[in-house]
Amino acid sequence: QSVLTQPPSVSAAPGQKVTISCSGSSSNIGNNYVSWYQQLPGTAPKLLIYENNKRPSGIPDRFSGSKSGTSTTLGITGLQTGDEADYYCGTWDSSLSAYVFGTGTKVTVL
Amino acid sequence: QVQLVQSGAEVKKPGASVKVSCKASGYTFTSYYMHWVRQAPGQGLEWMGIINPSGGSTSYAQKFQGRVTMTRDTSTSTVYMELSSLRSEDTAVYYCARAKYSNDAFDIWGQGTMVTVSS
């Protein structure tokens, strides 16, 4: 089972905002950069946020990341139907010497 | 453009081995690490291990120690992931993913390879 905990699902109407939390420990989130990945149905994951709060080229600023202590949050504003996907947090775990992913959160646009 | 192209779907019997390839293009192959991640049907992402294409060094998740082998061929810019002693629980989509450093974000992913283990 994953060492990073996310809510199973979140939902909101188009144009609204959602936040997804990811909770870990000092061996992972607390002392390493966090990334967020978006996985649209039937496709490979895609990098959304890296180094806690940076967006790769081409990712709209509707997506944002933040970190505090051993938790991190992904925010999506101006929600669109195309944002319906599974979202995963990920980071290196220094104790496990392994990369760990969150349990995943399904975003539904109502 | 930068891309990772994986080999096609596989169907294997329990106890057999499978070898999945991941061909890189559009960047300097030896300048980025390569991770392998798998996803069972309806489940989340699971990290399997990492290979440094420059020297070939590897590190595997404890769960797969003794069953997984990651290799690379610098002449073709291809990395391979071989999983042995397959069981039904290994049925999953297997992804390769690139990272600049060993603990860095995965910025480019392959399209995935479906491996089905069934008698």
- SSE order of chain B in H/E notation? EEEEEEEEEEE
What is the count of helical runs of chain A? 0
The major β-sheet of chain B equals: 7 strands, mixed
Radius of gyration of chain B: 13 Å
Q: Structural class, from secondary structure content of chain A?
A: mainly beta
Structure notes:
The complex is a heterodimer of chains A (110) and B (119). By secondary structure, chain A is an all-beta fold. Chain A contains no helices and nine strands. In chain A, a hairpin with a 4-residue loop joins strand 7 and strand 8 (98-101). In chain B, strands 2, 4, 5, 6, 9, 10 and 11 form a seven-stranded mixed beta sheet that branches. In chain B, strands 1-3-8-7 form a four-stranded antiparallel beta sheet, with no helix packed on it. In chain B, strand 7 (68-73) and strand 8 form a beta hairpin. Chain B is globular, with a radius of gyration of 13 Å. The chains are: A mainly beta (110), B mainly beta (119). Chains A and B meet through strand 7 and strand 8 of A and strand 5 and strand 10 of B.
